[in-house]
Amino acid sequence: MIIKPKARGFICTTAHPEGCYANVKEQIDYLSKKEKINGPKKVLIIGSSTGYGMSSRISTAFSSDASTIGVFFEKPSNGRSTASPGWYNTAAFEKLAHEQNLYAKSINGDAFSDQIKNETIDLIKKDLGKIDLLIYSLAAPRKTNYKTGEKYNSVLKPIGNVYSNKAVDFNTKVVSEVTVEPATEKEISDTVEVMGGNDWKLWIEKLKAADVLSEKFVTLAYSYIGSDITYPLYTKGTIGRAKDHLLETVPKIDQIIKDLDGKSYISVNKALITQASSAIPVIPLYISILYKIMKDKNTHEGCIEQCYRLFKDKLYKENVCVDELGRIRLDDWELEEDVQTKVRELWEKATTENIKTLTDINGYSSEFFKLFGFGLNNIDYEKDIDPIVDIPSIK
Predict the structure, then answer these.
(1) Which of 212, 169, 151 is nearest to 9 (CA)?
(2) Distance (Å) of CA 271 to CA 23, 51, 75, 143, 232
(3) DSSP character for 276?
(4) Is 279 helix (H, G, I), strand (E, B) or coil?
(5) What are phi and psi of 134, to 5 degrees?
(6) DSSP class of residue 318?
(7) pLDDT band (50, 70, 90) for residue 392
(8) What is the DSSP string of 337-375?
(9) Contact 22, 91 (CB under 8 A)
(10) Mutual orientation of helices 337-349 and 283-297 as an angle, nearest 10°?
(11) What is the reported pLDDT for 147?
C-alpha cells in the first residue's frame, strides 16, 4: 500500500507506520543528548499512545530507564486501511525500548472499563509488582458507564454565552469567524464526566486496593490554561470545567494514598499541536501565532521537551515546584507577558492575506501531519509498504 495523508477538516484518516516510527525515534534521539534523570522506575501511563502521553512514556523510559506499561484505545490495520497513529507509535516505542533492554508492555482497550483496569492490575502484579508513577493523560471524546450502560459525550463549547472569534483552517489557510453556541447543562456535566477526575480517582482506588502502589507513589494528570483569547471557549468553557474537576480531585487522591506518603499533581502544560487540540476552533490560529513568537524567542518546546523538563526540573526535585494552587507549571514561557502581548497584537492583525507571513501556519500544518507520520525526513512516501504492524506485547 502507498500511504498518503487524507485530511478531512481537523482529522487525518491515514497514518504512515515508517513515519510514526521516525517521529518516535526523533524524540528518543533528543533524549539521548540529555542527562539522565533520577526519576521513576515503574510507570503506568493511561492514554500513552499520542501527544503528552506518548512523550511521557518515552521520557520516563529513556531518561530514567523506567519499565513502562501503556494503556490506550487504538485501531490496528486490517490490511485495507492503515492503523491509527497511536498504534504505530506504540509499535515503534516498544521495538526501540526492547532494543535498549527496557521493559515495555501495552494494553489496548477502553481505560474507562473495569476489564482494562483489572487486566492492567494483573500485568503489574505479574511483571512489576508495584508502580511508583501513574500518568493520567486520557483525552477521550466519550465514555460509557459499563454498570449502567449510560453514555457520556464531551463537547468543546463555551458556558453561558455564545462565543465568536477568529479561526483558521490550517489546510486552506483561510481565516474566518467562528461562532459556537453555549453548552447545555447536560453537555457540561457529560464533559466533566468524560474529561474530569472521576476515572483518574477510580484508577487510583483500584490500584491501591490491589496493593500495586509503592511507597512515595506519585500520580500526575495534565491540564491547560492558556491565553485570555481562548478563555471563553476553553478555560471558562466545558473543557475548562472538566480541568477544574481534575484539580478538585487532587486532595481526594492525596487522601487515598496518604498512608503511602504519596502525592498527586496537576501539570499545566503549554499549548501544543495534538489531535485533540486541533479540534478546538480557535486553537490552530492561536498556536500558529504563539509558535512564531516563541520560536523567534527560542523558547518553543514540543511534547518531548516539555516532558523532559517536567521530570528533570519540576517533578523529581527534592522540593516539587508548584504554584499557589499546588499545580506544576510548564506553561510559564507561553504566558510570559511579552509573549502574550505580542500574541494579542498579531491576533488582531491576522487575515487570510497575511496568515503565512504573520504566523507559523505552515509550521502548524507540518506539525499536525507529523502526528500521523507524514512529512518526516528520509521517509520514502512513494514506497509500497505493509500497513499491518504488530505491537510486540499485544497478541
Answers:
(1) 169
(2) 19, 11, 26, 25, 16
(3) T
(4) helix
(5) -125, 125
(6) S
(7) very high
(8) HHHHHHHHHHHHH--TTTHHHHS-HHHHHHHHHHTTT-S
(9) no
(10) 130
(11) 85
CB 212 within 8 A of CB 131: yes
- Residues 369-394, mean pLDDT to the nearest whole number: 95
**Residue owning grid cell 514561557:** 333
Q: Are 362 and 356 in contact (CB under 8 A)?
A: yes
User: Under 8 Å CB-to-CB from 165, ≥6 apart: which residues?
Assistant: 177, 178, 229, 232, 233, 281, 282
SS3 sequence, 195-214?
A: HCCHHHHHHHHHHHHCCCEE
Helix, strand, or coil (residue 236): coil
Q: Which residues are catalytic?
A: 234
> What CA–CA distances, in Å, run from 279 to 59, 90, 199?
26, 23, 23
Q: Which residues of 300-330 are buried (b: 16+ CB within 10 A; e: fewer)?
A: bbbbbbbbbbbbbebbbeeeeeeeeeebbbb
Confidence of residue 296 (pLDDT cuts 50, 70, 90): very high
Count of positions (residues) in the chain = 395
Place of cell 499533581: 265
Are 320 and 133 contacting, i.e. CB atoms less than 8 angstroms apart? no
Per-residue pLDDT tens over the stretch 252-288: 999 999 999 999 999 999 999 877 777 787 889 999 9
Quick check: 154 and 239 in contact, CB under 8 A?
yes
Residue with cell 501531519: 369
Percent of the chain whose pLDDT exceeds 70: 100
Strand partners, 144: 151
Instruction: Report d(CA 175, CA 189) in Å as an integer.
Output: 32
Within 8 A by CB and 6+ apart from 177, the residues are: 164, 165, 166, 167
**What would the grid cell of residue 127 be?**
511483571
Q: What is the pLDDT of residues 210-229, one digit of tens each?
A: 999 999 999 999 999 989 99
Nine cell digits for residue 77? 490495520
